[in-house]
Design brief:
The protein is mainly alpha-helical and 257 residues long. The protein has twelve helices and three strands. The chain has two domains: 225 residues, Rhomboid-like fold; 25 residues, no CATH class.
């Protein structure tokens, strides 16, 4: 199932979502200019290699810089191929604009980065001895999906399912689609624990960690003060004792009904 569109219109331009997509696209273009050896070195230095932090002596022997935690940030701007980067950026485009609308650009950026770091930490915790670098924005995007799951559960998601190369389109409530997606990540992650060959190169637990982080962190970002907008009836109530408004009420009683 591939999401095509959601039913929630955005109220303002999703500036941070656009900038994140542009940043990921720029970094991927840089990756394309590298040789295979340079690209591998890039992934090992700036991707999350769990054993690098679990076994510091091994990391020092291999040549990793010590006390370097930047990969928990930089890994979410690296991608392993066209399908990887396009799939991630499309998903961010579908769900990111509405979450950014609710949080505001600044808080959305911090929220996105926080979910990405939480996803990387989850991957490290579950795969502590892995020497394979994990890269990609999917953990951070999973956090955005977790926030969307909470904020817009009744939104409609248009999905495309190819059957024998014929695309079929149908709608699902966001709560059903995202709930199923999370369940699949959880089940796939459980199977991946049986052995690396079961994971097919996908960091399922980073997805799980990002999604859960998005749900848990969202209330903290919503607590931030937002100016309250008074409706007309509320305005009349709040200023009912103003002398000028009392006089206007007497002159034009119907306009205040």
């Amino acid at each position: 199932m591939f999401p095509i569109q959601d039913s929630i219109p955005r109220r303002s331009p999703p500036i941070v979502t656009w900038l994140l997509i542009a940043a990921n696209a720029f970094v991927f273009l840089v990756e394309l200019s590298l040789t295979p050896e340079q690209l591998e070195a890039l992934f090992y230095l700036f991707g999350v290699v769990p054993a690098r932090y679990t076994h510091p002596r091994w990391a020092e022997w291999v040549g990793f810089p010590m006390q370097d935690y930047w990969p928990f940030l930089t890994n979410m701007f690296l991608h392993g191929g066209w399908a990887h980067v396009l799939g991630n950026m499309w998903t961010l485009w579908i769900f990111g604009d509405n979450v950014e609308d609710r949080l505001g650009p600044g808080r959305f950026f911090v929220f996105y980065i926080s979910c990405g770091i939480a996803a990387g930490l989850t991957h490290w915790f579950v795969n502590a001895d892995s020497t394979v670098p994990a890269v990609g924005a999917s953990g951070a995007i999973a956090g955005v999906m977790g926030a969307y799951f909470v904020l817009f559960p009744h939104s409609r998601i248009i999905l495309m399912v190819p059957i024998l190369f014929v695309p079929f389109f149908f709608e699902l409530p966001a709560i059903a689609y995202l709930g199923f997606w999370f369940l699949m990540q959880l089940v796939s992650g459980a199977f991946a624990l049986a052995g690396p060959e079961q994971a097919e190169g996908i960091a399922f637990w980073a997805h799980v960690g990002g999604f859960v982080a998005g749900m848990l962190l969202l209330p903290l970002f919503l607590i931030a003060h937002r100016p309250r907008r008074f409706e007309r009836d509320e305005f009349g109530f709040e200023t009912a004792w103003s002398p000028h408004l009392r006089a206007a009420r007497r002159r034009h009683p119907r306009s205040w009904s």
